[in-house]
Amino acid sequence: MSKAFLTKPKGFRVAAVKAGIKASGKLDLGLIVADQPCTAAATFSKNKIVGPAVVIDREKIQSGRAQAVFVNAGISNTCTGNRGERDVHTICREVGKCLDIDSDDILVCSTGIIGEFLPMGKVCKGIKKAADSLSRTALADRNLAQAILTTDLCIKSSLQKISLGGKTACIAGIAKGSGMIAPNMATMLAFLTTDVNISATLVRRALKHQVKLSFNKVNVDNHMSTSDTVIILASGQAQNKRITKADAKYKKFEKALGLVCDDLARQIAADGEGATCMVTVRVRGAASSSDAYAAVRKIVESPLVRCAFNGADPNWGRIVSAVGYSGAKFDPRKLTCSIAGVPVFRAGTPCRFNAAALSRKMKNKQWDVLVDLGAGRYQDFCYTCDLSRGYVRINADYHT
Amino acid sequence: MSKAFLTKPKGFRVAAVKAGIKASGKLDLGLIVADQPCTAAATFSKNKIVGPAVVIDREKIQSGRAQAVFVNAGISNTCTGNRGERDVHTICREVGKCLDIDSDDILVCSTGIIGEFLPMGKVCKGIKKAADSLSRTALADRNLAQAILTTDLCIKSSLQKISLGGKTACIAGIAKGSGMIAPNMATMLAFLTTDVNISATLVRRALKHQVKLSFNKVNVDNHMSTSDTVIILASGQAQNKRITKADAKYKKFEKALGLVCDDLARQIAADGEGATCMVTVRVRGAASSSDAYAAVRKIVESPLVRCAFNGADPNWGRIVSAVGYSGAKFDPRKLTCSIAGVPVFRAGTPCRFNAAALSRKMKNKQWDVLVDLGAGRYQDFCYTCDLSRGYVRINADYHT
């Protein structure tokens, strides 16, 4: 059974309870609580339609400080007008009262169905129950990672250890995300804890940079969600000398944070709704970074391409033609494409390859598509998954 | 049984044969031949990766003149390098020889699998057979409409009659297109014939304008094809006084042409791969035409939205959140959305509606989604269809 590690960094307790928000009756409400106010940073959905929690969190995180995170799954409390906004304030008040924490230091995340109100009676009871059961146990860690899931099949967690001036520090993360996943923001919920002692400016800088290279590189269905939030809390309890400059120690921290974020991002793509395989699509040789980005996006946004992934069909024509309408500059005679390491298209003409053998490779859990535009030195990538009957089943049959 | 009408306008003969290009052995090669050189215009895919036929046709149509169109389905002859280009020239030579027509007046269209070479022996035999069987019969018309199909389930055809200065004229069209359908070009093959006497400049202008409002408004799977072509041939045999100015008669012609194009475009959306319903998505109240376009595109490009269509699920949250990341300017508190005529979201909050009754309406063959951004006076629309297990089956299971 997979493990979650949010309390591995020193200074954190977590809890998860069944509050009755999810119709399934599963774990659906959690708390992440630091012993002391933490240095904190966050990134949010760039959707114009966002839940009130995102609006309020965005304001609060300006302080670079937070002590607790409330999270619920099942209902996203988005498109719920003034009542939705009041409910977020009520949650902060309740959490603050139970834990004796300033309401300004409490962040709220809700994920799930759009347009429904939170059952506030159940939520308030859930908060009390969760506050009473905060702990640093592996079970609590695991339960929390479970509680934040919606259509996800498995929990997503990651852990890195680093040594900073003789002190050992940890960076841990959990995430959820399966549908409504497209980049250009933090594309899901992810919570990161660390005991590294670091300034608010630098933790924000590291998070922003690493989210761009990880969570924002995941695309399941082109659909940008309304609740996406990534939060990091840094307790400082590793007792390293505070990192206040972008020096070698900062770089070490940022690199480790990047590994955690990348690991979680891959787990999200692999658990995309209905996914049977996780595919990394890389474009290199682009004339500009925007060209590389555009070509990657058009490939992963094509349902035709992603159906071919599902069928383990080395249909390079779909990939190459998607690049063709991406707007990226290239000479078709210099374009090359390989699938799972096998060259399939080169210099404007098809390569000879063993289609049956390649199809078998595409039945593996993870493989790559590589396109070289032959037009420059820029590159980009995206994590995606196949488009299956399972995706349609999940999103057509289960009614709002 | 549906009828096709390409020979209703005076001055055209057509033929279709089984040349053995489609593995299924179905009709796969056709000719459209005018008695005399016609005034002609065409629009093509804007994909950077296009078949050699598109490149060559684009050049030829500059003359504003054409007399014959060769078309085959099964193999698109795209990404086939120099050999593919030579094959197009061979086709023109063969058609020219059989029909005694100048090679410059012959256009070529190929649709089907990317990256395979045309079986030129079979193609040349097919051309001879087709040239020998040209006729003005309803059966030939129907066979041709059938021959150009790939994954389409049904033929697509349309006819309009107009009176011009006492003369009756016709505009007829057939089309194919089912997958790899996204706007921003002529998104499929469509062939239009008319006996209207009109200048090349004006027929080009009318076609360009009407394609934008019809074929370019269809989106099945965001994937722009490599072979898309719309061609119109005007024989002039209705014997109306030649239309050379953008006057009332020109407007009458353009309007009728628009009706034919719109009718064909709707038929393409309704026959999208795996489609069970055809949905017109309209956005109005936009601050600019590009905002209206962006909002429409993001709605129809979301597989989440189109799965909800498939499930007859009035999931307005997916529609509204897609508008939210479209980049269009709007105030969420002024946004309204209705599905199949039923208001579901207004002024930033959900409307009360009978979900079961609305779901029943969504099980109809055709219905609308209407979003009002409340930000201006611009509007746009798109024809799309639902995303079903059938789409995945078609595009995952049938290997290249």
Describe what you observe in this structure:
Two copies of one chain form a homodimer. Chain A is α+β, with helices and mostly antiparallel strands and 400 residues long. Helix content of chain A is 34%, strand content 27%. The first copy, chain A, has eleven helices and 14 strands. The two termini of chain A are 31 Å apart. At the A-B interface, helix 8, helix 9, strand 12 and helix 11 of A face helix 8, helix 9, strand 12 and helix 11 of B.
Short note summarizing the structure:
The structure is a homodimer of 400-residue chains. Chain A is an alpha+beta fold and 400 residues long.
Strand content of chain A: 25-35%
Order of helices and strands of chain A, N to C? EEHEHEHHEEEHEHEHHHEEEHEEH
Count every helix of chain A, treating DSSP H or I runs of 4 or more residues as helices: 11
**Into which percent range does the helicity of residues of chain A fall?**
25-40%
What overall geometry of chain A do the principal axes of the alpha carbons give? globular
By CATH, the superfamily of the largest domain in chain A comes out as L-amino peptidase D-ALA esterase/amidase
Q: Give the oligomer, counting copies of the same chain as homo and different chains as hetero.
A: homodimer
Task: Throw out a few tags for this protein.
six-stranded mixed sheet, 400 residues, Ubiquitin-like (UB roll), globular, 11 helices, alpha+beta, L-amino peptidase D-ALA esterase/amidase, homodimer, eight-stranded mixed sheet
Topology of this protein?
The structure is a homodimer of 400-residue chains.
Chain A: E1 12-17, E2 29-44, H1 52-60, E3 65-75, H2 81-99, E4 106-113, H3 120-132, H4 138-147, E5 156-164, E6 167-176, E7 189-194, H5 200-213, E8 229-234, H6 248-270, E9 278-286, H7 289-301, H8 303-310, H9 316-324, E10 336-339, E11 342-346, E12 349-350, H10 355-361, E13 366-372, E14 378-385, H11 389-397
Parallel strand pairs in A: 3-4, 7-8, 9-13
Antiparallel strand pairs in A: 1-2, 2-3, 2-8, 5-6, 6-7, 9-14, 10-11, 10-13, 11-12
Helix pairs in contact in A: 2-3, 5-6, 7-9
